[in-house]
Structures are given as C-alpha cells and as structure tokens.
Amino acid sequence: MTTFKTAQSPFKSDSTSSGRCGFTLMNNQVGVVVAEVMSTKPDVVVTPLPSMIRVDALRRMDVVYDEISEALGEEPGYFDSAEFEENMSTHYGRMIHEDDRTIMFANPEDAAEYLGFDLTVTPRR
User: Fold this and answer.
1) Which residue stretches of the chain are H helix?
2) How many Å apart are CA 13 and CA 81, to the nearest integer?
C-alpha cells in the first residue's frame, strides 16, 4: 500500500509579527515620484507592479511631505496628508499623520507616544 503525505502549504497561518509596515500607491505620476523619494530611505523596498507600487519598510518609515513636494517640483507645503491619502491605495502597520509627515510603524507599541497610549502594565481590579 502506498502512503501519501500532504505537502505543507506555503500559505499557512502565521501570527508572528513581520516587523514590517508599508503602503501601496497608484502607479501614476505622483505615485512614481513618491516611490522614488521613498526608495532613497534606509530599510525601504519599493516594488513597482503593473497597476500599483508597493512601498515596504522595516520597523518605521517617515514620508516627509516637503521632500515629496520638492521632488514634484512644487513649493513646500504642496504635498500633504490629503495628497498622500489620495495617491495611497492601502497600508499596513500603524499610520500617524503629523503636520509635516506621515509615519508608519510596524509595531503599534512603537506608536504609543504619538497616540497618547500609556504602555504601563496595571493590575486588574
């Protein structure tokens, strides 16, 4: 009798943290410029795809608006959170919008100070 063994699926569930954060951009003129600027950042990987552009990072990534404005050939202040949201399709990780940048965090705990969370453990009553 022949015994068959099922191969382990490469799509199995894995609940461990990836330590990564990122977003997808529309593959248009603005999206390409944002991706070009982000590709110069440490620990950031940009992956162009036919209909979108993936931007992934380890731990944390800052999208500095004036850097994008300059690369677009616009005045400081042109690119902002609204422009970013308009060109971004989706994201993963914790996203914090500030006046001058959007910060992406892989771990929510790293964003606690920006969100006003107290990470101190308190006993239950």
Assistant:
1) 29-38, 65-71, 81-87, 112-115
2) 34
pLDDT tens sequence across 97-120: 999 999 999 988 888 888 777 666
Residue 46 in any domain: the answer is: yes
pLDDT tens across 70-101, in order? 999 999 999 999 999 999 999 999 999 999 99
**What DSSP string runs through 17-31?**
---EEEEEEESSHHH
Please give the residue range of the domain that contains residue 44.
20-115
Q: Three-state DSSP class for 16?
A: coil
The total number of structural domains that make up the chain: 1
Three-class secondary structure of residue 104 per DSSP: strand
d(CA 100, CA 91): 19
Tell me the C-alpha distance between 48 and 58, whole Å: 18
